[in-house]
Amino acid sequence: MNTFISSFLDNDSFFGRFMNKCWIIIAANLTFIIFSIPVITIGPGLVALYHVMLRCLRTKGAINPFKEFWIGFKNNFKQAVIVWIVFVLFMICMIVEIRICIMGAGFLTIFKYGLYAMTFLALVAFLYLLPVIAAFADTTLHLLRNAFFFASKKPLKMLVILFFDIFPLYLTYTDPTYLPLYAFCWFFFGFGALAMLGATLLLPEFRPFLDKDLEQPEYRDEEAEMLDELRELDGL
């Protein structure tokens, strides 16, 4: 019985790994809330969240979430602030334009569909650009191109990411009955859980372009076996 309990609570067990991920999500989420108080820093905070989650997945949770959050926040601050401000201003313009078109008539009612398409592309660009900035170091234009590349590579995965990133916020905004429950979830783990989900879905797409030094041992072993097989074929 003692052996069973010890193995169950071991850090390498399923329960141990699950609880470690929960701790990282909660710790990173609370740090994000604190760092986002000035509002203008929400962009760098979201990038830092993705940085923590990607590091967690690639190192099997062997990280300090507070330290990794600060690294992701500090290293990407300027770039993420610019992206966040541009996105917010663009969305405000789109909302105003869409309302004008809805209240108008004739050509304006047709024009709103083009605005819907532009809004959708802006959401895709922003929601993919956050993890791309966290994973790669490059100019903003190159990272934006990479964001659209990863989004178009797996359209179904893109729709899943959009749904889970947008629907919970929409539900919180439109359902005041359960607002205290939503506020509790967002405060303690909501943003971190969404970042973990996004990082889990996107890491397989990012992995071929990332440094392998941080990868899980089993991933490195598989790659080493493939290289050995190639060497053997070359020697035949």
SSE inventory with pairings:
Elements: H1 2-9, H2 14-35, H3 42-58, H4 65-75, H5 77-103, H6 107-135, H7 140-153, H8 155-174, H9 179-206, H10 217-235
Report on the structure:
The protein has 236 residues and is mainly alpha-helical. 83% of the residues lie in helices and 0% in strands. α5 packs antiparallel against α6 (107-135). The model is unreliable at 216-227 (pLDDT under 50).
What attributes does this structure have?
single chain, 236 residues, mainly alpha, 10 helices
Give the end-to-end Cα distance, rounded to a whole number of Å.
53 Å
User: Which structural category fits the helices and strands?
Assistant: mainly alpha
Our Rg estimate from Cα atoms comes to 21 Å
The profile of the biggest β sheet is: none
Average residue-wise pLDDT: 85
What's the total helix number? 10
Percent helix, as a range, is: over 70%
* Low-confidence parts: 216-227
Query: SSE string, helix = H, strand = E?
Result: HHHHHHHHHH
